[in-house]
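User: Hey, my collaborator sent me this sequence without any context and asked if I could get a structure. I don't really work with proteins. Can you help?
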Amino acid sequence: MAGMISSPHTHLRNSVTTAMLNVCYALIPGIAAHVYFFGSGLLINMTITIATALLTEAAILKLRKRPIKASLMDGSALVTAILIALSLPSMVPWWVPFIGTAFAMVFAKHLYGGLGQNPFNPAMVGFAVLLIAFPQEMTRWMPPQFLDIYHPTFIETLRYSLTGLLPAGYQLDALTMATPLDTMKIQLGLGQSVEAIQGSQAVMGKLAGMGWEWINLMFLLGGLWLIIKRIIGWQIPVAMLAGLTIMSLISFLVAPDSYASPLFHLLSGATMLGAFFIATDPVTASTTPRGRLIYGFCIGILIYIIRTWGGYPDAIAFAVLLMNMAVPTIDYYTQPRVFGHDKK
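Assistant: No problem. I've predicted the 3D structure and written it out in structure-token form, which is a compact way to encode the shape of the chain:
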């Protein structure tokens, strides 16, 4: 009958727009911590990625003759843009966030039919393409502002983004340094012990990397708020962090001088951002209850494997994309028993 609401008749007030806006709100503490420790470059990158995502989405929708306003207002492009910006170093030319975001929107989202059809996380596809295509630009991270190293102002950072020019007498290599994960990996490869690295490298903090500890804690806070609000489930983030913790704990207990502690891995890089905001993407993640646990746990294992023995120190993007490919198989073999089905 016309106008009749189909079962189930108890409807939540959630919508795609509401969920995406809540994700944006939950990201604010981590964004604030990032700007506090590493400067205003993130805000410039966010401006570029958001503008690129919205304009690209509008152009593709127009070419596909689809409604533009509804898609732009659902917030999915906004979340993708923010996640890409959070994955980039603060000091990058404007074309880096532009290319990454445009590629994510066109090839990782709309090439498959748009929101709800894409098999891979668009933000991580964009980031992975940038990391492979422009490794030099993608590995120039700013040091924490508390170290005795010159930090460009907002205007100087904006000028570099748009023109590639730095203040007179400065070179970019002198203003950037390796991340804690990079530093740990390189120094271990040179035969240094974990204790010696943490005691001698300025970038190291009390538990993980200086600044990165607080950024991860802020993303953890935002992620817990999303779970409380029931925007995301607990299974994927808990399983992912458990997989990473178990793998790092085993290695740490066997050889503490050669492998970093679980706390270092949990509070370094994009661990908490990945656990609560990337791996939980409702379109590309597993949807069954058991499948979510398997999916998250395997991401945690892959993160540790790639960080420890692979060529990329953080590994969130590649671990998520690899498990995106496994989602159809995981969901197929973890379908819950149909209600009322007799046990054999």
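In plain terms: Residues 1-7, 9-13 have pLDDT under 50 and may be disordered. You can pass these tokens on to your collaborator as they are.
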